[in-house]
Write a structure and sequence with these properties.
CATH topology: Maf protein
Strand content: 25-35%
Oligomer: single chain
Structural class: alpha/beta
Low-confidence stretches: none
Bound molecules: inosinic acid
Number of strands: 7
Largest sheet: 7 strands, mixed
């Protein structure tokens, strides 16, 4: 079976293909000649994941899945959430996003937060949703050089240091996206 992963991130693509049995071939957007930008206009992670997966299924006719991730901070009522990428405005800038978050949390004692990933799968006319959560807290300053986005200021529960100090292998085992993709892969490997 062929299945499109609606992402332009080749690392994510490779990761998923490695986890799947050989009977499922993952196609990139480039593989199906899709160069369209799908605006993430919904106000939830699930909504945006559905939007992206539905766009491909409707316009290109493929079985497809898409993901969307946000950082939800407890004392900010779940912000930045679905707006994590553009928290500090356009153009997208991870450093500015982190500085804005650190400044909004300056006088807060509750620094609990979680990354949440929603994955939407469209397969043979049916739709399935998967979720992955990684709980942790926002540090008071940056730590580590690896990763991307908010990694330097997010410390996962049960660990001493930020995501940005971990190898991608280590991070994938416990991360929101790793957990959501693992659920998707288990579902697909048992499909039919
Ligand atoms: P996306 O849905 O994977 O594109 O993620 C949206 C935004 O959430 C990104 O632009 C990052 O700011 C943030 N983000 C998503 N996943 C991670 C992660 O694993 N570490 C740090 N930041 C992340």
């Amino acid at each position: 079976m062929e299945l499109v992963f609606a992402t332009n991130n080749l690392n994510k693509l490779r990761e998923v293909q490695e986890m799947l049995s050989n009977s499922i071939k993952i196609l990139s957007l480039k593989d199906i000649n899709c160069y369209d930008e799908v605006d993430e206009t919904e106000n939830s992670l699930e909504g945006n994941a559905k939007l992206k997966a539905n766009y491909i299924t409707k316009n290109f006719g493929y079985n497809c899945f898409a993901d969307d991730t946000g950082l939800e901070v407890e004392s900010l009522d779940g912000k930045p959430g679905v707006y994590s990428a553009r928290f500090a405005g356009e153009p997208v800038n991870a450093e500015n996003n982190m500085q804005k978050l650190l400044s909004e949390l300056k006088n807060k004692t509750n620094r609990k937060a979680q990354f949440r990933t929603a994955v939407c799968l469209n397969i043979e006319g049916k739709q399935f949703l998967f979720e992955g959560i990684c709980k942790g807290e926002i540090l008071t300053k940056k730590q580590g050089e690896k990763g991307f986005g908010y990694d330097p200021i997010f410390k996962p529960e049960g660990f001493k240091e930020s995501f940005a100090t971990m190898s991608s292998e280590e991070k994938n085992k416990i991360s929101h996206r790793g957990i959501a993709i693992q659920k998707l892969v288990e579902f697909l490997n048992n499909y039919k």
